[in-house]
Amino acid sequence: METDVAIVGAGFGGLGAAIRLQRAGFTDFVVFDRGDDVGGTWRDNSYPGCACDVPSHLYSFSFAPNPRWSNTFSSQREIWDYLRSCVDRFGIRPKLRLRHEVQEASWDDKRQRWLLRTSGGDHTARVLICAAGPLSDPAIPDLPGMDHFAGTVFHSARWRHDHDLTGRHVAVIGTGASAIQFVPRIQPTVGALTLFQRTPAWIMPRLSRRISRLEQAVFRTVPGAQRAVRAALYLVRDTMGLGFLHPAVNRLASRLSLRMLRRQVNDPHLRDKLTPRYTMGCKRVLISNDYWPALTRPNVEVVTAGIERIVPDGLVTTDGAHHRADTIILGTGFHVTDSPIVARIRGRGGRSLGEAWTPSMHAYRGTAIAGFPNLFFLLGPNTGLGHTSVVLMIEAQLRLVLAALRHMRANGIQAVEPTGDAQRRWTERVGQKMSGTVWQTGCSSWYLDTTGRNTTIWPGLVTGFRMRLRRFRPADYRIVTAGNTPNEPEREHADAV
Ligand code: NAP
């Protein structure tokens, strides 16, 4: 099948792209997703307690406000419902190709088209928007003996709802954003919970509350009310988040967190284990009111020794201790800097994005990549945020994508890709902004790739990112028109960083 634009992924990124394209008059597109429903990470993560730690009014599309949010921080179910409702609200359903896993997407330079091999058949497209998302493929730790475990193992993003945890001996590996949400939920039900912690998290209070019916009515009926709340939240979150970079603000926030720890955990030995000893903010600051209290319950043990191996009836740690378990839940995060989709995308000359991004990811404005014509990558390198809504970044990228498509349409352009030079300049600028920040130097985290570069976080205000992606700058691109040779030598992309 031939289509103008192919979108990979039907989560926030893919649906946002579809709606923005549709509204801008680019109606010849399809959205592929390997799942049997839309929603992406909000479809896949259904673990108990799954919720967003960004305010609902911000964690939604600017063009699709939802006056019915029931809580200031929405639950997974509500966000998933919101995304599903957007499909019908904007007439996207006919464009969806669910249960279509993109197995390969390769650029055909002669035809100036992307050739897509999917589990539901082959397609061609002029433009490819990759919205597969950085949190779509669970990271499963390579622990010796896992195959011999006699019980049940699952990842938090593939929760086994058919596996009743009542009375079970459960081992939880990982103490990140997901684990701190499901641990307090399962603790009252399980017989025993052993939590394997590698790094204690900085945790702040979760200041959430129900949104009253009156407020919902105001958002429904008073023009601009919800927009005003969103604008206020945007400003507060964007500036507050960056405030963490200031040593005084950081010290104050760290003191607040430690005070909450002292209040919630009496046992000095446990408190010592849970005390973070690195600069706040170098990995995601978590929010929870019930995680630390749950760890004080008699059926919970926090283990800080490393996991040496898995045995049929439990886990053995490096101190030789055996920890009985019949269920292992992996709260071990995702393949963020090494997503499997990148091996499946092949640009000019057959080079895969995975190869281009080895050992480190590089992209022009986090969105386009030298050597990969007409490819736009949502939530690409250095577009992640720890302090506010990533939907804002997606929308900023979509603005650039639309600007590019409009420019191409107006000028009869077949293909665009950033020049190696433009990509290099962008990478250098991001590197300079990152240098010396807590995200680069604070601790080892999944923000950093194997070279030690932070390729995930945007080191600045969202506002700054949005400004930089407002316009399509033709001079930064290698441009192909019918019968025209590109304005950049062929070999350039190979050594672009
Ligand atoms: P994560 O933040 O990457 O945390 C993974 C945890 O597993 C960390 O504690 C890590 O320890 C530990 N771990 C990984 N491999 C291990 C191993 N081999 N042995 C022992 N421990 C291991 O993953 P996540 O909690 O699933 O969250 C991922 C991201 O999802 C978040 O950062 C956030 O962006 C997003 N998320 C967002 C929300 C939200 O409310 N918006 C909610 C949930 C998740 P180390 O810290 O030592 O590496």
UniProtKB/TrEMBL annotation:
InterPro entries assigned to the protein according to its UniProt record, in alphabetical order: FAD-bind_Monooxygenase_sf (IPR051209), FAD/NAD-bd_sf (IPR036188)
Domain of life, per lineage: Bacteria
Official protein name in the record: Predicted flavoprotein CzcO associated with the cation diffusion facilitator CzcD
Protein source organism: Micromonospora coriariae
Source taxonomy: Bacteria, Bacillati, Actinomycetota, Actinomycetes, Micromonosporales
